[in-house]
Amino acid sequence: MNPEELHDIAVKRREQQAQFENRIVVCTGTACHASQSEQIIDRLNTEIKGRGLTKRCAISAGGCRGLCAAGPMVTVEPEHILYQGVKPDDAEPILASLNEAPVERLRCDTDAPFFARQKRVVLEYNGMLDPEEIEDYIAAGGFATFINTLTQMQPSNVIEVVRRSGLGGRGGAGYSTGLKWATVAKAAGQHKFIICNGDEGDPGAFMDRSVMEDYPYRVIEGILIAAYGIGADEGFIYVRAEYPLAVKRLRHALRQAEKYGLLGNDLCGTNFSLKLDVRLGAGAFVCGEETALMASIEGKRGTPRPRPPYPAESGLWGFPTLINNVETFANVVPILREGSEWFASIGTERSKGTKVFALSGQIKHTGLIEVPMGITLREIIFEIGGGIPGGKRFKAVQTGGPSGGCIPEQHLDIPVDYASLAQVGSIMGSGGMIVMDETSCMVDVAKYFMEFCMTESCGKCIPCRVGTAQMYRLLDKITRGEGTLDDLTLLEDLCDMVQHTSLCGLGQAAPNPVKSTLRYFRDEYLAHIVDKTCPAGVCTLHREAVSL
Amino acid sequence: MQAAMSVVTAPPSEDKRWRIIQTTMRRQGYSPHALIETLHSVQAAFGYLDEASLHYVAQSLHIPLSRVYGVATFYNLFTLKPQGAHSCVVCLGTACYIKGGQQILAALEQATGIHRGETTPDKQVSLVVARCLGTCGLAPAVIFDEEITGQVLPDEAARRVKEWLAYES
């Protein structure tokens, strides 16, 4: 593949697309798929045949528009008319409206804050590409950045551009992507690996699923650029097996990229080669940790090991290895295309770019959003998210999954960036954002996350294996109304011990949900312990304990 | 070719499904790191990992049986027990949990008379709990026989599972 060939494919596909007056794109992401989007496509295809519109109107599968709760979403181009909650029977009125006024009862207002307040970089294609058509991606400019980078830039310049952009790891920690790449590039050895971490294990997080399902080619292009920068010749995309659609689409995308000479040996007439494959997880949360993930790719139990050595020096099978998250790789293409200054102009002083969040829980507009760093939590929840349904009161927002914390109302005006979230006792995390209202009991939520960490602990180090179990027992005791004030002290001691002595991030961060709820909702703990009541009415307390 | 053939272990039975598993292993050169992919392949073909299959995979990939067993029991998705004809996966991710996933699970446990992770004695229904399906927009979500269903109510879930049980008896 050379630049001219790529250009020809793009032109040919754009000409094909231009033959149609209208294009109807139906979201086929997991959530819309579950709400019959395939049947809608079938009905639309049958209807256009019946109406003799096959030459005028194209029907295609697309990606997520973000508003998952209102799915299935259907877009009519070129007018950008967005429909929500579409049923197969709506195929007829939608087609009938093509030359007339849109179907008002299905209309979704794209000027609403949910859409207008977002800033889309990772999700820039707005779900308009067919995830199984590489030509669609090429027609939209795909792979041009990779070919330009490969043929016109030195690897060291690629790393420099990424470093200057200020991109931080989107897996949650925010470590400078450019510095990480530079370390792997400097490591000695001819054979290096590159790994894309798609083991999105945090409950309540589905950003990476969506990116892999909708833009598999974009992820592959990002990996290609990174591999060129660091000098890797082999790589893996590690995906959790719970995401069958993402696995299917990535595998398909890899085959298509190989067919077009965008993966394989001596790419674009250079001596750069990359072999890329998908590896499946098997339901172990700890495999999101990089050393555990590598053990899993090697076909072993996914237990972490102490660092150093870091994967950059000794990773997969002992070779220097770069591991980045899906969203990090998805940011690489726009950075190389638009330049580091452009990327660095988005966001805050210390946190650059945008972040994709999965907004869920007790919130009106559940779905996938992308916002510039520095936006406040209040703007996300009450403007983009539309606030709390049913006239209920906001209580807390949980970020960072089992490694994060619960943020109360008083901190809703902090900017969303790595440092500010850490300051209030939570973390950016991979992007799960779960909103809770007055019907959620914070002690129960802490217990929920502790049960999660206890079950998912790999068992290798004692503080995590035993500590999380002890903390879970104490929380369970408190939610049953049998806790004492001494238990609370013990719980706090254990938080400290597990945090400081566990081997990997799972154990080190496991106390975070408990610590943050103790910090902001201590009164709820005390209500369970002293008054033997659950203010939210979630826990079933043993009333007889009151008389003791 | 002869030499390559001689190291390939014969599958435990004549069942044609073993060919899929052999293809998985061959594609990765019968290397030990193909273990997880191979176990996925066995489970996809047979529904669970029985003892004979673990022996076979261990011999084919030249890995000690203890390590194969270690891996098969470490990962939550692998099961050593046969599953029911129908499966019901209740999501207990955070969004589903705070929107009532627990109540759905309780209703299903009552309707089937089994606990999470178990299969009904007539081998009709397996009740499984998932960490997060990543379909938080549909919370609370349940997968009834591979079909993801959103905004499920406890009664509704119980009714669907009872239909499976009633239909077979």
Secondary structure layout plus pairing:
The complex is a heterodimer of chains A (548) and B (169).
Chain A: H1 3-18, E1 22-27, H2 30-34, H3 37-50, E2 57-62, E3 74-77, E4 81-83, H4 91-96, H5 113-116, H6 134-139, H7 144-152, H8 155-165, H9 177-186, E5 193-198, H10 207-214, H11 216-230, E6 234-239, H12 244-259, E7 275-280, H13 290-297, E8 321-325, H14 326-338, H15 340-344, E9 354-361, E10 367-372, H16 377-384, E11 394-399, E12 405-408, H17 418-423, E13 432-437, H18 442-456, H19 462-479, H20 485-501, H21 505-509, H22 512-520, H23 522-531
Parallel strand pairs in A: 1-2, 5-6, 5-8, 6-7, 9-13
Antiparallel strand pairs in A: 1-3, 3-4, 9-10, 11-12, 11-13
Helix pairs in contact in A: 7-11, 8-9, 8-11, 10-12, 11-14, 18-19, 19-20
Chain B: H1 2-6, H2 18-27, H3 35-46, H4 51-61, H5 65-74, E1 86-91, H6 94-98, H7 101-112, E2 125-130, E3 142-144, E4 147-149, H8 154-168
Parallel strand pairs in B: 1-2
Antiparallel strand pairs in B: 1-3, 3-4
Helix pairs in contact in B: 2-3, 3-4, 4-5, 7-8
Can I get a quick summary?
The complex is a heterodimer of chains A (548) and B (169). Chain A is of the alpha/beta class and 548 residues long. Chain A has 23 helices and 13 strands.
Description:
The complex is a heterodimer of chains A (548) and B (169). Chain A has helices spanning 3-18, 30-34, 37-50, 91-96, 113-116, 134-139, 144-152, 155-165, 177-186, 207-214, 216-230, 244-259, 290-297, 326-338, 340-344, 377-384, 418-423, 442-456, 462-479, 485-501, 505-509, 512-520, 522-531, and strands at 22-27, 57-62, 74-77, 81-83, 193-198, 234-239, 275-280, 321-325, 354-361, 367-372, 394-399, 405-408, 432-437. By secondary structure, chain A is of the alpha/beta class. In chain A, the strands form three sheets. Chain A has a five-stranded mixed sheet with strand order 10-9-13-11-12. Chain A has a four-stranded mixed sheet with strand order 2-1-3-4, with helices on one face. The longest helix of chain A is centred in the C-terminal third of the chain and has 18 residues, at 462-479. In chain A, a hairpin with a 5-residue loop joins strand 11 (394-399) and strand 12 (405-408). Chain B has helices at residues 2-6, 18-27, 35-46, 51-61, 65-74, 94-98, 101-112, 154-168, and strands spanning 86-91, 125-130, 142-144, 147-149. Chain B has a four-stranded mixed sheet, with helices on one face. In chain B, strand 3 and strand 4 form a beta hairpin. In chain B, helix 2 (18-27) packs antiparallel against helix 3 (35-46), helix 3 runs antiparallel to helix 4 (51-61) and helix 4 crosses helix 5 (65-74). Chain B is elongated. The N and C termini of chain B lie far apart (53 Å). At the A-B interface, helix 2, strand 9, strand 13 and helix 18 of A face helix 3, helix 5, helix 6 and strand 4 of B.
